[in-house]
Amino acid sequence: MGLSVERIHAMYQRMLLMRAFDEHAGTARRDNRLRGSVHEYTGQEAIAAGVCAALTDRDYISSYHRGHGHCIAKGADPVAMMLEIHGKAGGVCGGKGGSMHVADFSRGILGANGVVADGVTIAVGAAQAVRLLGEDRIVVAFFGDGALNRGPMLEALNWAKVYDLPVLFVCEDNGYSDHTRTPSVTAGPGIVARAEAFGIPADSIDGNDLLAVACSAALMVGEVRAGKGPRFLHATTCRWRGHLALDRGLYRDPAEVAGYAARDPLVSTARLLLDNGVAQATLDEDARSARERIAAAAAIAEAAPSPGPGELFTDVQDTGAPSWP
To answer: Which residue from 43, 47, 70, 240 has the least number of CB within 10 angstroms?
Structure first.
């Protein structure tokens, strides 16, 4: 396989945690137990797990509105994340960011971002800083296929290649840009060709195949870290839920949605582990442990207080603001 069973097992456990977290988040939003927007990552877990397994604690990632899985894969504390999405004190951003703005600089998580493609420009800016400071970190920019048709995305690709910055672009292609099929609004020969047009080496893989993701990401991360410039990983996947937790996804073919279960990365990874000697009882315990850990985090979050009124005036950026009379 090229990867040890222990390493694959660790990625599987992280995927279980992502699945349990987003199942809680989506259900809580549909039940009005938390406010704001929630974009579930269910079905796409193999990409975050496989890519982040190739990173060090010092490396950076940026994310987009569907970012819970990336943060968990990079090592964010699920309790602090749960407090954050519930808008409670003690959240990883003080309970003031919510689902779409989870960030944890201590883990190299530069933040999710609700503006399509803007997380990519943040990643390229971080990569430029890494280069100027002479650091050995690299940066990974996670984004969806809809971002490829946004102007900032093209600017980021161009800038990264012009300066050969240490950044890996990871496109999570679930086939939908919000409620629209992405191919119906995308010109040209495709996503990979668009990256290659900027001179950036690219690879296209099955994003639901954990081994394919982990192996391709490890190769590309190594090339980026060696100073060979940006790389582009295109990973096809499935988005099980609607664009938002409150989106029932009625614009999709029911047969298409039903087919997603057959491509569940958790099921295929569990089968791989079983074939390589991991006991079913161990996998069952993994699943139970993940569910209990997230349930405990949710209980803490739902009982926690909201930030106090005084917190309205903290963490407010004033650097660069104009002087007011």
So the answer is: 240
